[in-house]
Write a structure and sequence with these properties.
Helix 3 packs across helix 4. The protein has an eight-stranded parallel barrel, surrounded by four helices. It has ten helices and eight strands. By secondary structure, the chain is of the alpha/beta class. The protein has one domain: Alpha-Beta Barrel (TIM Barrel). The termini are far apart. It is globular, with a radius of gyration of 21 Å. The structure holds flavin-adenine dinucleotide.
Length: about 325
Amino acid sequence: MSPDTGPLHAEPMSTAPFGLNDAHFPARAPQRLEVSFEFSPPKTEAAERTLWETVTRLTPLRPTFFSVTYGAGGSTRQRTHETVVRLKKETGIDPAAHLTCVAATRGEIDDVARAYWDAGIRHIVALRGDPPGGIGGKYTPHPGGYANAAELIAGLKKIGPFQISAAGYPEKHPDSANNEADLDNLKRKVDAGAERCITQFFFEAEDFLRFRDRAATVGVNVPIVPGIMPVSNFQGIQKMAGGCGSKVPSWLAHLFDGLDEDAETRRMIAATVAGDLCRRLQSEGVEQFHFYTLNRADLTFAICHLLGVRPQRSPS
Ligand SMILES: Cc1cc2nc3c(=O)[nH]c(=O)nc-3n(C[C@H](O)[C@H](O)[C@H](O)COP(=O)(O)OP(=O)(O)OC[C@H]3O[C@@H](n4cnc5c(N)ncnc54)[C@H](O)[C@@H]3O)c2cc1C
């Protein structure tokens, strides 16, 4: 750089990026964060290759578990099962199978759960699921089915001592009349046997922290794990957020403004935004993070690195 084209500001540059300095994140004893990674079952051979490349990259981070989603209306029942079983066999990391109540009788859902138990799968992410037309429509339980996640959890516990994770909503579920009703529902899920609450994605740390405080006041005494969605496709996230009641703040729109044709910069922004969110939560004592990977490794890996989660040798 020639003197003529040097920086216009006179301030000395900080050696650390904003938000990553010791004042914001004081040194502390090394802490092993727990991370978990969510995948969806692949639909095509190409998608399957991408997923297993992702799994190969993320496995050395030794997540607490991998989880695999269950398509609307049970549409991925078989593929979810196959993916979960393969994860168990090939990675040595405990997988969790998502399971919903939609479009099935209790007996059918119990059969799916028994098949997991027989395959050695001990962790279920138990969900109600959305109405077949997507969120926004009125949810009607299947006649003879489980009415909601709390009922499903109680049913699963009768089949075997599964470890159960349930969903939570920092900005409340769109079907809940208010925060109080939403927390009552979360408490019912914990009382039925959920041992962990994984949250819907959100972008403001304060929304999560207030939710965590409210949950504690109603006696929800299980870990509340933030669901982190690294955003690199802004339009896609806006659509998804509209569907599940998460706010997309205007500052996030501003950050992605003008980058429609610039995927590389979008990815850098995505890692920065999600990394910042995680570190803010970490500074408030959060020690577990669940990543919505969208079956891609790069952003999740980068954010884990920022958080100090590094590849480990597998125990021999
Ligand atoms: C971590 C995570 C993973 C997910 N994975 C999947 C997946 O794999 N597949 C999928 O299809 N969807 C998935 N979802 C989406 C989820 O299915 C939807 O958000 C769904 O609309 C609600 O599911 P739930 O388990 O929270 O429902 P529930 O906890 O049963 O309840 C949802 C809402 O219904 C109302 N409600 C429930 N019970 C009662 C009651 N007794 N009285 C009054 N109101 C009641 C409340 O308003 C409540 O907030 C996931 C969500 C999260 C956060």
